[in-house]
Design brief:
- There is one protein chain.
- The protein is built from 8 helices and 7 strands; from the N terminus they run E-H-E-H-E-H-E-H-E-H-E-H-H-H-E.
- The chain has 254 residues and is an alpha/beta fold.
- The relative contact order is 0.14.
- Helix 1 runs parallel beside helix 2, helix 1 packs across helix 8 and helix 4 runs parallel beside helix 5.
- The protein starts with 6 loop residues before the first strand and ends in a 7-residue tail after the last strand.
- The mean pLDDT is 93.
- 45% of the residues lie in helices and 15% in strands.
- Strands 3-2-1-4-5-6-7 form a 7-stranded parallel beta sheet, sandwiched between helices.
């Protein structure tokens, strides 16, 4: 198990990719802090983890990643419970307003940037000093195929996810030689429960034609993303710094 004895905070872990990442990390031996703005969803994820490994390896924390006080409370709870933070997965995000740029309101822009970029910055900023003090740490940010190309996800989401890659590179530049390794994973369109429930993983959906024309010819599975994230968090990826790994079935090459 490549993450044995590691402690990982995973934000946005109440469902979707974050829940799958939590399952993968537990299976790889890590202790997991399941952080989400929806504490009930986070508790459900912890229950799933405890069915695999029993109690004591996972806890849930309510957090709004744009709220410094809540982020600091999450960090304190992690240290109190597990004594350290080895890995931070900045997965919280969402709110893709698919309006054209000329129809996007300032309110929608600000909210989307906050959820997808500001929160990633704040959590990283608050966790990095702990990693520096320990002399090592790993951060993996969830970006998107929309961090590589323009897409139907809309101007604010595309700008925010491009910003996540810029943030990733800057953090790697500033802290890589001090022991903190930072990378990003860029999922393509992934068939999460939410996507399926909203009937967006079907013929006629906004990304269907591109997804089916890509080399993989299918939607991503949450496990596809979780496994790559776990690899980037492991010591096997020790020489990877400041990279944005595309896990998109090749959709960004066409």
């Amino acid at each position: 198990m490549k993450l044995e004895n590691k402690v990982a905070i995973i934000t946005g872990a109440g469902g979707g990719l974050g829940r799958e990442m939590s399952l993968e990390f537990i299976n790889q031996g890590a202790s997991v802090v399941v952080a989400d703005i929806n504490i009930e969803a986070a508790n459900e994820t912890v229950q799933l983890l405890e069915e695999i490994v029993g109690q004591g390896k996972a806890i849930s924390v309510e957090v709004d990643c744009t709220n410094v006080g809540m982020v600091d409370s999450m960090i304190k709870k992690t240290i109190d419970e597990f004594g350290k933070i080895d890995i931070l997965i900045n997965n919280a995000g969402g709110k893709a307003d698919r309006s054209l740029a000329i129809d996007t309101t300032e309110e929608s822009w600000d909210e989307t940037i906050a959820i997808n970029l500001k929160g990633t910055f704040i959590v990283s900023r608050q966790v990095i000093p702990i990693m520096l003090n320990a002399g090592k740490g790993v951060i993996v940010n969830t970006a998107s195929a929309s961090a590589i190309i323009a897409s139907a996800a809309g101007v604010a989401y595309t700008a925010a996810k491009h910003g996540v890659i810029g943030l990733t590179k800057q953090l790697a530049y500033e802290f890589g030689q001090k022991g903190v390794r930072v990378n990003a994973v860029c999922p393509g369109v992934t068939a999460t429960p939410k996507l399926i429930e909203n009937n967006m993983a079907e013929d006629g959906g906004p990304w269907h034609e591109l997804t089916m024309a890509a080399p993989a010819g299918r939607y991503g599975k949450p496990a596809d993303i979780a496994k790559v994230t776990a690899f980037l968090a492991s010591d096997d990826a020790d020489f990877i710094h400041g990279s944005a790994i595309q896990v998109d079935g090749g959709s960004t090459v066409i």
